Fold this sequence. Notes:
Blueprint: H1 4-9, H2 15-18, H3 25-59, E1 62-65, E2 68-74, H4 78-84, H5 87-120, H6 125-137, H7 140-150, H8 157-161, H9 173-201, H10 205-213, H11 218-229, H12 231-246, H13 250-255, H14 265-275, H15 279-304, H16 308-312
Antiparallel strand pairs: 1-2
Helix pairs in contact: 3-15, 5-9, 5-12, 6-9, 7-9, 9-12, 10-11, 12-15, 14-15
Amino acid sequence: MTPPEATTSHRPGTQKESGKPIISERVRGERRLGLYLTLPSYVVMLLVTAYPLGYALVLSLYNFRLTDPGGRSFVGLRNFGVILTDPVWWNDFATTLAITIVTVAIELVLGFWFAFVMLRIVRGRGPLRTAILIPYGIVTVVSAFIWRYAFAIDSGFVNQWLNLTDFDWFGDRWSAIFVICLSEIWKTTPFISLLLLAGLVQVPEDMQEAAKVDGATAWQRLWKITLPNMKAAIMVALLFRTLDAWRIFDNPYVMTNGANNTETISFLAYRQNVTLVNLGMGSAVSVLLFLSVVAIAWIFIKVFRTDLSQVRGDQ
C-alpha cells in the first residue's frame, strides 16, 4: 500500500507541483524581522520625501514662473508633452545614458579587480584598502574642480604630459564627456569595489578548491562559481551605482556648465528651476527624472531576480 505521505506529496495542486517555491519558517521570520527593522526609517523617509514629491507633481501641472506669480495657470500634462517633444530633452537623455553606461561598465570591471586584490593580498592589506577608498571620501564638487584644473587648456598638467598644445578638452562634446566619465570612474570605483569585496568574502572557498581539483581554469571558476555566488552583491552594486550615475549633476556643472551638449537630465531640471525660474517646466523634468529612476530600479530587480534567501541556500 502506498504510504499516505507519498500520496499527499504528489497530489495535483500542491505547492511543489505548481512550481511555487516553498518558503521555510526561518525565511518568513527573517522577512518579518527585516520589515520591523526597516519600517521606522521607511516611514520617516516617506514623510520627508512625500511632500516635496507631491508638490513637484502638482507644480508640473501648472504654467508657473516666479517672475510672474500672478500668471499661474493650470495646463494639465502639457508641460510633459513640451518636454518629451523637445530635442533638448532627448539630447540630455542621450548624454546621461552615455555617461551612465560607460562609467558603470568600467567601474564594474575595475571594481572586480580591486576587490580581488584587496581579498588576496596579505601584507599591507589595511593601508591598501585605505588608499583605494581615498577618492570616494573626497567631496564630489572638490573632485570635479581637481579634474577641471588638471585638464584646463592653459594651466592643466595633462596637456603638458601628453605634449598637447592648447588642446581644449572641454571645447568639444565627446572630449568633455570623456573627462567627466574619467572623473566619475576615479571617484566611485572604490564604492563598487567595496560592495563587490563584501560579495567575494561570501563565496565558499571549499567550492573553489574543489573546482581546482577537478581541473577547472580560473576563467571557469569565475563564471561557474564566483559570479553566481555574488549575484546579490553585483545587483546591489550595479543598482546603487546606476541610479547615482543617472542623477549626475556636479561634474557637468563644475567642468562645463552644460556647454557643448554636455547637459544631463539633472542639469536640465536645475536650469529650468533655478536659472529660468520656470517651476512648472522644471518640476515636470524632475518628475520625469524620478519616474526614470523608479523604472531603472524596477528593471534591475526584474532582470536579476535575486532572492537573498536563495543565494544563501535556504529552502
